[in-house]
Recover the amino acids of this structure.
């Protein structure tokens, strides 16, 4: 998230507890009164709700070490949600021009992270 936000940017969030764990970020949570998050930020709420539900349904939970991979796949699917045929063509094109990759290469970052942070 830090690479996507310019310094000195003011963010309005839903006070998700994980924002407090970001290094070098001062997070001043401001509650918009008794208003529910889905009223104040409807599209933001819908997007994250869909992401969480998708992660539970597809992967039966999300791991912090693979979070960027989950986000990449979710964004890929979300951006193509209304054009199923185009999504299939894109996926087919990626598969046709990409060489096969062994499983150990796919999970190498997760293995390295687990080895350095037991």
């Amino acid at each position: 998230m830090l690479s996507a936000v310019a310094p000195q940017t003011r963010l309005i969030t839903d006070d998700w507890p994980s924002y407090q764990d970001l290094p070098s970020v001062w997070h001043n949570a401001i509650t918009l009164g008794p208003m529910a998050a889905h009223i104040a930020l409807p599209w933001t709420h819908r997007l994250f709700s869909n992401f969480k539900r998708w992660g539970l349904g597809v992967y039966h939970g999300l791991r912090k070490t693979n979070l960027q991979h989950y986000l990449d796949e979710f964004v890929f699917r979300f951006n193509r949600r209304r054009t199923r045929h185009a999504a299939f063509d894109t996926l087919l094109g990626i598969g046709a021009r990409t060489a096969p990759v062994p499983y150990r290469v796919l999970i190498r970052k997760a293995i390295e992270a687990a080895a350095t942070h037991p």
Notes: Residues 2-116 form one domain. The chain has six helices and no strands. The radius of gyration is 18 Å. The chain has a mean pLDDT of 77.
